[in-house]
Amino acid sequence: MVLVAGSANLDFVVRAQRIPAPGETVLGHDLQTFPGGKGANQAVACARAGGSRTGMVLALGRDAYAQPLKASLQSAGVVLHAQEFDDIASGTAFICVSDDAENAITVAPGANARLLAAHLPPLAGYQFLLMQLEIPLGTVIESARLARAAGLQVALNAAPAQALPLELMAMVDLLIVNEGELRTISQSQGSIVDAMAVVPCQTIVVTLGARGAVARKGGELHYQTGFAVQAVDTTGAGDTFCGVLIAQLAAGQAMPLALQFAGAAAALCCTKPGAQSSVPPASEVRSFLAERSASEPLAQQVLERYCQAIA
Ligand code: RIB
User: Fold this and answer.
1) Tens digits of per-residue pLDDT, 147-177?
2) pLDDT one-digit tens code per residue, 46-67
3) Which residues are known catalytic residues?
4) Is 240 in the pocket of ligand 1 (CB under 6 A)?
5) Spatial contact of 192 and 179, defined as CB atoms under 8 Å apart
6) Residue-number span of the structural domain to which 128 is assigned
7) Ligand 1 center to 263 CA (angstroms)
8) How many angstroms does the Cα of residue 134 sit away from the middle of ligand 1?
9) In what order do the strands lie in the sheet with 153-157?
10) Is residue 19 part of a domain?
């Protein structure tokens, strides 16, 4: 079983030809709202991946935004441990998605900032605690401490980027970051593999966007190339990767296959708008992988060339 402790935001998404530069105004179109928040997105991805029950501890305002956030999690099968507050709004995020599927996100944390380690449910039966950095850092540190004491593995997606105290890194069994977050945490400008080497976590996974992902587990390196898709909105792709990866590992999958399944799910997420709305079920990921391995017999050679290039 996987417990996610993290944020839930209602995403206000406007599409525009391009993301505005500082000080610039652009005219967009199509304002839509979607259930989001890195924690909730990852919980939905974990639950949809199957193989492991998923719980989530979260904080919400007692307001109109909370309802769609709870409904999306529950319809994915996530068991909720929700703290609800009268005097603060649920988290919101303001997202501009460009015609080339990239995004710029500003989060108003609202109730997410009130989540405490004291809100964790009893931890017996859980294998993993998965967190992100849209809740207070103190909550992340204390929750990691409680989880470790209860025998759980601690997984941290260190997003949005911020430097991590050593006491936290020492408690993280599995760190998942993108390249920018890796630079912030490692303070290294060397190669990705060199930067990974200075991070004192047992396992580290670095997502590389459309180029795939690389993992270091103990002394071993694993690479997974990206899956080319027609992207319409990359929002939530990183979260899909994290949630699916943890579901796969909790179900006993080995790292190379877990990376492949998570990478395929993240690619599929980019083909639809929204965050949780675009997280694919496991059946869709399996069909996609079956199609791709039938139509791309050179994948292994591409992977090998990529490994040589990145090492
Ligand atoms: O990672 C994407 C998420 O970041 C969005 O859903 C938004 O809510 C922000 O948390």
Assistant:
1) 999 999 999 999 999 999 999 999 999 999 9
2) 999 998 899 999 999 999 999 9
3) 239
4) no
5) yes
6) 2-7+37-90+112-308
7) 18
8) 9
9) 79-85, 54-61, 2-5, 128-131, 153-157, 174-178, 203-207, 212-217, 220-225
10) no
